[in-house]
Amino acid sequence: MEIKNLKSEYLESNIFVCKNGNSCVVVDAGVEPKLVKQAVGNLKVMAVLLTHGHYDHAMHALDYAKMFDCKIYASGFAKDELLDPAKNYGESFKLNSFEDFVFLRNNGKIELGDFEIQYLSTPGHCKSSLCFLLNNHLFAGDTLFDNGIGRTDLYGSSKEEMISSLEKLDAFEFEICHSGHGEDSEFARQKRNIKAFIRFLKR
Ligand SMILES: [Zn+2]
Q1: What is the DSSP letter of 71?
Q2: Ligand 1 centroid from CA 42, angstroms
Q3: What distance in angstroms lies between residue 199's CA and the mean position of ligand 1's atoms?
Q4: What's the CA-to-centroid distance between 5 and ligand 1, angstroms?
Q5: Per-residue model confidence as pLDDT tens digits over 75-85
Q6: Rounded CA gap, 63 and 28, in Å?
Q7: What DSSP string runs through 3-53?
Q8: Could you tell me which residues come within 8 angstroms of residue 110 by beta carbon, excluding any fewer than 6 positions away?
Q9: Residue 198 contacts residue 166 (beta carbons within 8 Å)
Q10: In terms of pTM, does the model score above 0.85?
Q11: Ligand 1: distance of its center to the CA of 137 in Å?
Q12: 20 C-alpha to center of ligand 1: Å?
């Protein structure tokens, strides 16, 4: 799998175009549609995956779905956030149409063409936080960064849930972690970090 990373103007949120053969999936939707189109080229886009419902990760999701004629996969909790700028932190960003969405619950697997995508519900930063695992690559959204974890002082945040989500990730195998902001990080480093973050949150 080949992965391209683009950064948005808004809080430098990351999006990732993950290529497998002639198709790809796009993780998150904070980057201008025309730049994503350039990165996608002739590939068939199988899905847009949203790591959570904050505007800097979700604001162009509908544009991508229309442009690439595909579905958006997000947590069922994202709807509440996407309906209300006070909950998704966009100045005036809100969605009123959800027909292009497939809402996910708990943990599970999505099979789309050559892609097998595992998803894990990891609330803590917000209710709708999901992590996706594709071919040993973990897409962690704002749950886990190279050198930190997501804020837990926002709408729907919970320190207790963040602790159990990190414990879930601690039991998970992956090679590389791609976060919602900042740089990629390796498994061994994240394993050390996760344990330290859990200790820190439990103080
Ligand atoms: Zn966020």
Answers
A1: E
A2: 30
A3: 22
A4: 18
A5: 999 999 999 99
A6: 12
A7: EEEEE-SSTTBEEEEEEETTEEEEE---S-HHHHHHHHTTPEEEEEE-S-S
A8: 47, 73, 104, 116, 117, 119
A9: yes
A10: yes
A11: 20
A12: 27
Distance 126 CA to ligand 1 centre (A): 7
Rounded to whole angstroms, the Cα distance separating 69 from 56 reads 22
Domain architecture of the chain: domains with CATH: 2-202 (3.60.15.10)
Cα of 159 vs centre of ligand 1, distance in Å, is 15
Residue 31 Cα to ligand 1 middle (Å): 15
DSSP of 146-202: TTEE--SSSTT--HHHHHHHHHHHHT---SEEEESBS--EEHHHHHHHHHHHHHHHH
**Mean pLDDT throughout 146-155?**
95
Residue 9 has pLDDT above 90, yes or no: no
Here the tokens at position 105 are 């619950």
Q: From ligand 1's centre to the CA of 21, what distance in Å?
A: 31
- Going by pLDDT thresholds of 50, 70 and 90, the confidence category of residue 100 is very high
Distance (angstroms) between ligand 1 centre and the Cα of 41 equals 28
Cα-to-centroid distance, 54 and ligand 1 (Å): 5
Using a 10 angstrom Cβ sphere, with 0-12 exposed, 13-18 middle and 19 or more buried, the burial of residue 72 is: buried
Amino acid residing at 120? L
Cα(57) to ligand 1 centroid in Å equals 7
